[in-house]
Specification:
By secondary structure, the protein is mostly helical. It contains five helices and two strands, in the order αααααββ. The protein is 58% helix and 2% strand. The chain has a domain at 44-83 and 90-152. The model has no long low-confidence stretch (mean pLDDT 83).
Length: 180
């Protein structure tokens, strides 16, 4: 008996569990996300080495934000670079990714500035601040690259298309009057 399908079928190249580039994440943004994860992890670990604090509220805010950035960015990276994102039930991944990254960039910037202004000047604190600012830069670069490659077109969910400066005509909804 001969195999009917073997000469004409090929394996599905998209069947792997890890796929970059994809519709939601290209190689450049994947690299940004990996750097965000690594830099926020290093900032968090360095902050954990601080034994005494001058202003503990600044330290705790930086700790919370660097840990949150590490965990949630890692989760987002895993979801966007694997088929898991299709099982979550979220259809607006570009919008979620953009808003999360922009908010995290702003909050990380604030936390890094506050911790830089109110620390004891130890090597661990200064190094943690430096990695906090590096992570902040990666978040802002990711936002900038996202806007450069996709603009804000992903934000217009269901907005009517324009035609020659006006709104495009929708399909006729009313039925023709039929004499009874």
């Amino acid at each position: 008996m001969t195999e009917v399908y073997s000469p004409t079928t090929a394996p599905n190249p998209k069947s792997s569990c890890f796929s970059v580039p994809s519709d939601n994440l290209d190689r450049v943004r994947f690299a940004f996300k990996v750097l965000q994860v690594l830099l926020s992890l290093v900032a968090f670990l360095l902050e954990e080495l601080v034994s005494s604090c001058l202003s503990c509220s600044a330290l705790y805010f930086f700790e919370f934000l660097s840990c949150t950035a590490f965990l949630f960015t890692l989760l987002l990276l895993i979801l966007l670079s694997t088929p898991l994102h299709s099982r979550v039930g979220i259809s607006c991944w570009p919008k979620l990714d953009f808003v999360y990254t922009a908010v995290m960039a702003l909050l990380f910037l604030i936390a890094s500035i506050v911790f830089a202004a109110e620390n004891g000047g130890s090597k661990e604190e200064m190094t943690a601040v430096a990695f906090g600012f590096l992570a902040t830069v990666m978040f802002f670069l990711d936002v900038g690259y996202f806007l450069k490659t996709r603009s804000l077109s992903f934000m217009r969910d269901g907005a009517p298309e324009t035609s020659n400066g006006g709104v495009a005509a929708s399909a006729e909804v009313e039925k023709l009057n039929v004499p009874e």
